[in-house]
Design brief:
Strand 3 and strand 4 form a beta hairpin. Helix 1 packs across helix 4 and helix 2 runs antiparallel to helix 3. 54% of the residues lie in helices and 10% in strands. The chain has a five-stranded mixed sheet, covered by helices on one side. A two-stranded antiparallel sheet has the order 1-2. The chain is of the alpha+beta class. It is elongated, with a radius of gyration of 24 Å. The chain folds into two domains: 161 residues, no CATH class; 102 residues, Orthogonal Bundle (Arc Repressor Mutant, subunit A), CATH 1.10.10.60. It has 17 helices and seven strands.
């Protein structure tokens, strides 16, 4: 899928679009004008969601809260279970042997969604807290909204897996908001504000209680598929991934330096260099890898001659492409083309 080129705001967030659509419908507003206002092109969405900057994700939830009527948007979004629209997530959660295993998925998806979500268990003999930490205090309002969303999702998950409501109380670090009364009405649980943690409290014995839906073999298979899916989504938002998409849409940049690519991404060259360094990449490495992948695609799926491909990818001539391709694949472009089957 194609993504908008992500600038400035460096951190990226995966947004499960179908969940947001369902929540918007229930809260009485159209999601399309909101996405337009935030600058998120729906044409760039994939089957399961879109990749946007973290700032855009904060603006998105703040705008949705402002547009909602009748119900508080984060509660409804949390009820829609975020990434459960992805089949691997649903399969993993439904087949988990214990609640302890099920809540692990929040940390995995938190890495993809880019909002700093981290869960930790704080256990005692009697009661335990599933404690949430949410990053980026610079966006306090949005952080509260995302906290509400995740807490709602955890409450829903526990009820779904245990078949009954087993949450003892909810605690929040933020002060009571103007709509505090909506918490009690929505959750039907004791809620305390201004506490030391955002957390869901349950009986400790529930963490390792064998769930009725437990299917260990399916859980292991689903876990592997889920981690693979999340790895793909995470890579889509990496700096190297952004560069790969930039080169794919603008092959002229394959012969340019880091400064030109940074300008096209609307970021400072130092920022681009640092982001790549954090991923253990260099600009020249990503540029070369993109050239290799694009040359393989053109050799497999088009009738372009090697001369035409070398021109498209910015090589000085056919011989330069052949030398580079032999370094990458240990074979010539012509031999590679004759040895592979075109993609369907």
């Amino acid at each position: 899928m194609n993504h908008p080129y992500l600038s400035q705001q460096e951190l990226v967030s995966f947004v499960p679009l179908l969940s947001w659509i369902r929540a918007a419908v229930r809260c009485g507003f159209a999601i399309a004008p909101v996405l337009d206002e935030i600058g998120v092109p729906v044409t760039d969405s994939g089957a399961h969601g879109i990749v946007i900057t973290q700032e855009q994700s904060f603006r998105l939830i703040e705008t949705c809260v402002a547009r909602a009527s009748g119900e508080h948007f984060p509660f409804i979004l949390g009820e829609n279970a975020a990434l459960e629209s992805i089949p691997e997530v649903q399969a993993y959660i439904c087949s988990c042997v214990t609640l302890r295993e099920a809540v692990k998925y929040y940390n995995w998806v938190g890495q993809v969604m880019g909002n700093g979500v981290e869960l930790s268990l704080h256990e005692t003999d009697g009661y335990s807290r599933i404690q949430l930490s949410m990053g980026n205090p610079a966006y306090r309002a949005a952080s509260v909204f995302f906290t509400e969303t995740v807490i709602t999702s955890i409450v829903r998950l526990i009820s779904q897996l245990l078949g009954r409501k087993e949450v003892e109380q909810l605690t929040f670090r933020h002060a009571p908001p103007a709509y505090a009364a909506a918490y009690a009405g929505f959750f039907g649980l004791p809620v305390r504000f201004g506490q030391d943690a955002d957390a869901v409290t349950i009986r400790t014995a529930l963490l390792d209680l064998k769930l009725n839906g437990a299917l260990p073999e399916l859980q292991q298979k689903a876990r592997s598929q889920l981690l693979q899916r999340l790895s793909t989504l995470s890579a889509a938002g990496s700096m190297a991934g952004q560069l790969n998409r930039l080169f794919a849409d603008h092959p002229d940049l394959l012969t340019c330096g880091l400064d030109s690519a940074a300008a096209r991404l609307d970021m400072q060259p130092r920022t681009l260099q640092r982001r790549l360094h954090e991923e253990d990449k260099t600009f020249s490495d990503v540029q070369a890898q993109s050239r290799f992948e694009m040359s393989c695609t053109l050799l497999r799926n088009t009738n372009y001659s090697v001369d035409e491909i070398s021109e498209l990818l910015g090589f000085s001539d056919r011989r330069a492409l052949t030398r580079a391709f032999k370094r990458w694949a240990n074979t010539s472009p012509s031999h590679y083309r004759n040895s592979v089957t075109p993609a369907i």
